[in-house]
UniProtKB/TrEMBL annotation:
The lineage of its organism: Bacteria, Thermotogati, Deinococcota, Deinococci, Deinococcales. Residues 112-206 form the M23ase beta-sheet core domain. Residues 1-35 form the signal peptide. This is Metalloendopeptidase-like membrane protein. It holds the Pfam family Peptidase_M23. Keywords: Signal.
Amino acid sequence: MFGRLSVYKSSMTATGLARFVLVLGASLSWPASQAVTPGTASPRCPSEFGAEPRTPAEHRRRAEWVPYQRQLPLYEARLPGKPDRQLVMPVSGVRVRQVRDTFARPRGGGRLHEGQDIFAPRNTPVYSAAAGFVWRISETPLGGKWVFTVGAGGRRYYYAHLERFAAGLREGQRVTTSTLLGYVGTTGNARDTPAHLHFEVNEGSQARCDYRAIDPLPLLVDRPPKPSDR
Ligand SMILES: [Zn+2]
């Protein structure tokens, strides 16, 4: 116990309490049994890729991440070093106080929910919550149609279950908090749920053994209405 406490104490530097909560959150979120990927330091490190691949399709999807992981430092070098303190509500017309907290809630298979589900009518516009770049656009059985962006401090933002992508959206493009990414939907494993955006924020990396999903809700601020909406 003393050892654990001293770990917490030593992390009480500039980032203080937030760091403490993150450490705690990470230990809540990922079973120690998870995950070895190419280039992984330790099998005890939390996985940024979910469950271990079993089928050939899952192995292929895992392998597809490798070039994207290599691109991350290039984006990071072009962005501020400190992560954003505020994120702008990504779903048009939803107030932050309307979001029912679903972070770290139990999900099937012993996993915890690693993001916030933001419910809105199908086809509601989804904007980037932070400035940065579009990192990856794809479609998978769990997330359905999804977009990952990378922002300041190398943080990744995951927007999943999109009904469709914004026209012309492409990987590598600059985004601001006014950039349309797509539209709320039910793709992937959300097909039997009311339409919602699964919004997730990831920090650190598996290679450094400090990967974690953080709760976006405390960081979210309301999106100002567009002049045309008033
Ligand atoms: Zn979700």
